[in-house]
Amino acid sequence: MNNSPISTSIFDLFKVGPGPSSSHTIGPMKAAFDFLERLKKRPEATLQTADSVHIQLYGSLSATGKGHGTDRAIVAGLLGWQPESTDPTALLALLKEPAKTYPVQIGNRTIPLGVEHIHFERKKYESPYANTVVFKLVSAGETLFEQEYYSIGGGFIIRKGEEAADPSAIQLPYPYQTMKELKTRLYDHQLTLEQLMLANETAVTGRSAKEIDQRIDLLLDFMHKAVRRGLRHTGTLPGSIKLRRKAPVLFQQARGLAQSSDSFLIFLNAYCLAASEENAAGGIVVTAPTSGASGVIPGLTYLAKHHFHYDKTTLRAGMWAAAAVGFLVKHNASISGAEMGCMGEIGTASAMGAAFLTQCAGHSIGAVEAAAEIGIEHHLGMTCDPIGGYVQIPCIERNAMGAVKAYNAFLLATAGTPANQKISLDAVIKVMKATGRDMSTKYKETSEAGLALSATEC
Question: What is the Cα–Cα distance from 227 to 269, expressed in whole angstroms?
């Protein structure tokens, strides 16, 4: 467990960017952009002799990077693009022509970047994280400048040798590392969860409460735009699987069964599939907490807004509960599929979704914790085994299943006394971390086992 207080911003957990994978698309794009920025600080004499940039991908970035669009994301980052402002159509167009090169600005000149400069390394590489990328500025075969990055899930990156920000430098009004500590702060200071989270967020980002509220509303807007696009778009998703979109069909079916008891679940499935299919198509989504799980929270929040008719204030309160759970998992385990398997992505999203629903319904912090614990508990050991490396099968349907589990976790947690819950959220996160550590690498986003081996049947 990290021994410092949680100082992650809600806007780092929920990030806007192109799909299909936060760890394989957004993270590498950010790393490439950071490398480009660092090149600008190198001596001009060094840059003048450079003739190429080479990129080496290791671990899951190598194993499934093609299907996840990691190569395109890296080209985009080296062209100076950033996730939130990237045009997804332009991103998908990169590397369509294998012979085409792209101009990378090195000092006062450009050098060409092509497919031959991006290397999907299959050999084992000693690294503290599963997803590693190494950038090298090269002159006549000699490395002039090198940087190594780790994509640790949810679009978060770490640069090798970088001094981690000192959390103690941020004076958090209500520091916590665990759910137990979080509840103690709430009880001791007689605060609501939203009040505590907002106070800490203000300390971390320096933004006012009004600015933070507006940005949360904007995040929800991005999520719901992804849902609406997905409900409209038909046809086949990119990639060799040729998977047909299902969300519009389900949505029309739900509308036709409006008086049926099944319509509620079909609507929820449609909303989750819609956002997830947009992610698989490389559209703009919100990491929640990852791109691979970007259908769960958008689907549930869309349902909460349009079926439960919750207002903005209620939806924001629910988002803070979801963020609190996401922070705890990221801090004490991992949200990365390459580290935890799919329980790190869909499992975390389902727990966040359960917390969101429980908070919106006005229940206690004890009920929020119980709902989140149930959400994770019933995803323990879930593998990450995408067919062909595409975030499609089983990922898209898993978003819908994760949302349904979140709703059921909310029902189970609020059906009795939360204090009677035998397993705490902190305990199940510890189990999650241990399970991820013990899980075979084959089942952690490498497409080397499980459903991924069914590719020949598709």
Answer: 11
Q: What sign does the dihedral 284-287-292-295 (CA atoms) show? A: negative
pLDDT digit string (tens) for 375-401? Answer: 999 999 999 999 988 999 999 999 999
Residue with tokens 């349902």: 303
Chain centroid offset of residue 229 CA: 19
Q: Identify the helix (H) or strand (E) that includes residue 277.
A: helix 263-280
Q: What is the pLDDT of residues 149-165, one digit of tens each?
A: 999 988 999 999 886 55
Give the list of residues 6+ apart from residue 176 with CB closer than 8 angstroms, or none: 5, 6, 182, 184, 185
pLDDT tens column, 171-184: 999 999 999 999 99
Work out the widest C-alpha separation in the chain, in whole angstroms. Answer: 72
In this prediction the pTM is: 0.90
Helix segments in 191-246, DSSP class H: 193-205, 209-232
Architecture of domain 19-159: 2-Layer Sandwich (3.30)
Please state the domain extents for the chain.
Answer: 19-159, 177-198+205-457
